[in-house]
Amino acid sequence: MSEPHIERPVDRSKLQVSDEVAIQIENMNKWYGQFHVLRDVNLTVNRGERIVIAGPSGSGKSTLIRCINRLEEHQSGKIIVDGTELTSDLKNIDKVRSEVGMVFQHFNLFPHLTILENCTLAPIWVRKVPKKEAEETAMHFLEKVKIPEQAHKYPGMLSGGQQQRVAIARSLCMRPRIMLFDEPTSALDPEMIKEVLDTMIELAEEGMTMLCVTHEMGFAQAVANRVIFMADGQIIEQNNPFDFFNNPQSERTKQFLSQIL
Ligand code: ADP
Ligand code: MG
């Protein structure tokens, strides 16, 4: 297996899954023009679940998680997040976006704003939080990701790993109930991957519902309660990490695992 980037022990007793449904996706299909990118996707995610989505490049992983906060629109089927169905209704889209945080491969911080300003921008302008309160919240989460001392610097002055931790803190400042991660460590140097994964493990232990597209199979084994394998826009199989890695069912999954492990 590729070098595991997890050293921190994971307290599995804290990893509880509730009966409450956080995300429900039913017979969902999406096309980009003529191209059928997501095919009959069905997925139920309970609150507290930590799901790793794996699969070859181009299989639709990013598109799937982007549909969950309506960065992309699906054309048929249902996506229900925290009881709110995603339709063209802007009120629903706003509600879902306020509950779902997203962290991308490229951190997408605003280069001309300080770390603190990056973290307070949306709470102040979208959530109408008073500036002082937004700054206190931002400092709280910057401490949580262990970089409060960087608050007054600009993104370009930070390492990739630090910038990604800022991106996570920035998301948390909006108090999401669900976090989506799209290859959050793929753009990082190996020595920085661990610090980002540690932050994600901590979030998991606090009960955050998480969907993570990642190739960090050590993270999947340590933290995920379910691994989903996608290919050609479909969920091919899903299982708990132990069985997923040790007893894959489909040929596609076996082939994929033989390439990455
Ligand atoms: P993954 O994240 O698994 O690599 P993506 O969801 O990014 O896959 O992409 C799935 C497929 O959809 C790929 O074939 C990709 O080229 C195509 N695709 C992605 N985004 C767009 C877009 N905006 N317009 C057209 N095709 C797209
Ligand atoms: Mg992708």
UniProtKB/TrEMBL annotation:
It comes from the Bacteria. SMART domains: AAA. Residues 23-257 form the ABC transporter domain. Keywords: ATP-binding, Nucleotide-binding, Transport. One of its GO terms (molecular function) is ATP binding. PROSITE patterns: ABC_TRANSPORTER_1, ABC_TRANSPORTER_2. Belongs to the ABC transporter superfamily. This is Amino acid ABC transporter ATP-binding protein. It comes from Paenirhodobacter hankyongi.
